[in-house]
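SAMPLE LOG
Freezer: B-3
Tube label: C17
Construct: single chain, 219 aa
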Amino acid sequence: MGLICLQGGNEFAPECREMDAALLARAGDGPVVLVPLAGAKGREYDTAGANGTRHFQSLGAEDVRVAPDARSDPAGALAAVEEARLLVLPGGSPRRLRDAIANTPLHDAIRRAAADDDRVVMGSSAGAMVLCATTVLPQWRGTPNVGEGLGIVDDFVVVPHYAGPRTAWEKAIRAHDPEIDILGIPECSGVLIDGEAVTATGAEPSTLITPDGRESLAR
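STRUCTURE (predicted):
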């Protein structure tokens, strides 16, 4: 299994540089590929791709690519993801991201990337949420829905932008699965899943929320 980094949001900010430079070093030579499918087609997709390109180029990456939008060019997106050494899923709408990837060849390609010891998969905010088998699917009003994610990470559900308990989200998650462990991940921070090891990284510590309580993850 390769390295997976679940981040809490505000990706590509200056406070993310040290964390992301370490991911880049772990991935080694080869393309950084951005897949901004959590953004709407057009401007949102292009803006997230441009922001990520600038960020990783500033960290020294020589080959940074934005995958073609899989909603209009699925074959081009698949080819780009297959070549990624560092695969990046930025934030936006979890539902939009999940629905664009689930049960497609792109889903299988992301799973292969996550299983490869020589590759790194990073998701931020919506990207981190949807990489898990269970994801929150926020609504504008009312209790958030909880449903299936992509299943790349089996054991956790992510609460991003974490700055203390998010009661409505946590209640919805517990109603869906009383026993699941929750990762509360602040912005510009992350949780590294490297085989059986689960550790915190980035600007602030992340919180593991179990049915029995809360604890800060070791860094």
